Amino acid sequence: MPASTAAPGVLVLAATPLGDPRDASVRLRELIGTADVIAAEDTRRFRTLAAALGVTYTGKIVSHYDAVETERAPGLLAAVRDGATVLVVSDAGMPAVSDPGYRLVAAAAAEDLPVTCLPGPSAVTTALVLSGLPAERFCFEGFPPRRPGERRRWLETLRDERRAVVFFESPRRTADLLAAAVEVLGPDRRAAVCRELTKTYEQVQRGTLAALAGWAASGDVLGEVTIVLAGAEAPDAPPVGSLIDAVRERVDDGERLKDAVAAVAEAAGVPKRELYNATLAARDD
C-alpha cells in the first residue's frame, strides 16, 4: 500500500484551565472545535471542559493517560503524518509537565513531524508567584517519592539547593511530607502550600516548615496541592584573610596566582579582587 503523500498535520500540546474555565484562551476554544483528534488524559473531564466553554467538538476523542501513552503514540503520530491536527490535553495545566505528553513529543520530533504548544495555565508558575518567596531562579521536582526512606533522601538533596523548589504532592501525603521536611531541612525554612489553585476554595498557606507542618497535621488537606520551598540561604563567607594559606598552597603546587585566587574565592563565596589584594599584601609583609 503506498505511503500517504498528504502534507503532515501538527501535534499541539495545549494548556487547559487549572480550575476556572474562564482561564481558557481563545486559541484553546478554537482548537477544541477544529482538531481532528483530541488525546485527553481524562476524556470525561475533557467533555466537561468543552461543555463549560460552550464549544462543540467534532474530532475523535481518545484517552491519553500515563498507562496508555506509549500504546497510543503510533496511532496519534500516524494521524499527524496523514495531515491531521492532533490536540493533546491533560486534566489541568500543561501536558508533559508531570502529565502525559513528553514521550509523544519526543517521538514526533524524532520523525521531524510538526509540533507546537498552545501556552496557558500552569500550576508550577501560578504557585510560584503566589508563594511570596524569591523566584528569580527555581527548579521543578514533579512528585516526591512516596516511601519514607526515599522521600527523606530526596529531601536531603534539597538541603543546600539555592533555588526555589516547586513540586506537587498528594493531599493525603502532604502532612507527612511537611513533617519529614522539618526534620531534614529544619523548622525555619520557609515554604508555601498552594491548594485548589484558581478554584472556589483556593488557599495559599505561607510560613515556616514547622508552622506549615502543624497546620497540615491539624486537619485534612484537600484538593490539588502544589508546594513551593524557599531556596537555602547562602552560608556566611569566611574572612578573606583565612583563605590566603589555601591560595598559597595552590601556588606552591604550580598554579598561577590568578587561577588559584579565582578557584578559592569561588569555592568560599568571596570576591576575587578582595582575596587577590589580600594575598599580595600578605606576600609583601
UniProtKB/TrEMBL annotation:
Residues 256-282 form the RsmI HTH domain. Residues 11-212 form the Tetrapyrrole methylase domain. It catalyses: cytidine(1402) in 16S rRNA + S-adenosyl-L-methionine = 2'-O-methylcytidine(1402) in 16S rRNA + S-adenosyl-L-homocysteine + H(+). Its EC number is 2.1.1.198. PROSITE patterns: RSMI. Keywords: Cytoplasm, Methyltransferase, rRNA processing, S-adenosyl-L-methionine, Transferase. The keyword Transcription does not apply. It is found in: Cytoplasm. Its main location: cytoplasm. InterPro entries: 4pyrrol_Mease, 4pyrrol_Methylase_sf, 4pyrrole_Mease_sub1, 4pyrrole_Mease_sub2, rRNA_ssu_MeTfrase_I, RsmI_HTH, SAM_MeTrfase_RsmI_CS. Pfam families: RsmI_C, TP_methylase. Catalyzes the 2'-O-methylation of the ribose of cytidine 1402 (C1402) in 16S rRNA. Belongs to the methyltransferase superfamily. RsmI family. This is Ribosomal RNA small subunit methyltransferase I. The gene is rsmI.
